[in-house]
Amino acid sequence: MAGKAVVLLSGGLDSAVAAAIAVHEGFHVHALTVDYGQRHLRELDAAKGVAIALGVKVHRILRVDLAGFGGSALTDKSINVPEECPSEAIGTDIPATYVPARNTVLLGLGLSWAEALGADAVFIGAHSVDYSGYPDCRPEFLDAFRRVSALGTKRGVEGKPVSIEAPLIRMGKREIIERGKVLKVPFELTWSCYIGGKKACGKCDSCTIRLKAFAEAGMEDPIEYEQR
Ligand SMILES: [Zn+2]
User: Fold this and answer.
1) What's the 81 CA to ligand 1 centre distance in angstroms?
2) How confident is the model at residue 90 (pLDDT cuts 50, 70, 90)?
């Protein structure tokens, strides 16, 4: 019988699939959503809906104002979100949507809650295939964070470190969607667009990657787009 796990739930598609995997593995999931001052609040509503749909009983939304630091198109309105980047160019440079050290912050918060709760694992939906080029989504980074968990916590010192689970890390986006379909992830409730209008824009890197992957999986993306 699996114990408790903290799942970092952003409201996006990847973290929804990671949460569904944790539920499927039998963990008592405690979802953690960080309101870090992203441009739009659509993601937070999406996270609430996904948590309910997956039967997650405990969901905390924590406010940590990374927008006060800025340095990203996602937290600073004066920096434009790149649009209509040709899909083959996505991932070649670290894009303007990179949020400084975001996954270090999120994993640190998740690890703290996990240790306080007595949870055995922190799940994160990071993946490094078909991704946007963020350095903190790479397998090497997650391995380094496993060292942090082992060295920087009471549990780690006692030989029972909280494990850092990144079940999507070696999956492509299409495979993530296919896995999510099997696990009945409510894709219609997820939100990936960086812009955050009434409908997803269909043009930013995140929409581009998502639409391409649904097409490759032979599935219709159930959310509404301004343009596809
Ligand atoms: Zn978009």
Assistant:
1) 9
2) low
Range of the domain at 46: 4-216
φ, ψ for residue 30, nearest 5 deg: -115, 110
Please give the order of strands across the beta sheet that includes 58-63.
Answer: 58-63, 28-35, 4-8, 121-123, 163-165
Residue 13's nearest CA partner among 130, 180, 135 is 180
Backbone φ and ψ of 179, nearest 5°: -65, -40
Count the domains in the chain: 1
- Measured in Å, residue 205 CA sits from the centre of ligand 1 at 7
* Segment 129-140 mean pLDDT: 83
User: Would residue 222 count as lying in a domain?
Assistant: no
pTM confidence score = 0.94
Residue 120 within any structural domain of the chain: yes
Taking the centre of ligand 1 as the mean of its atom positions, its distance from the CA of residue 113, in whole angstroms, is 31
157 inside domain: yes
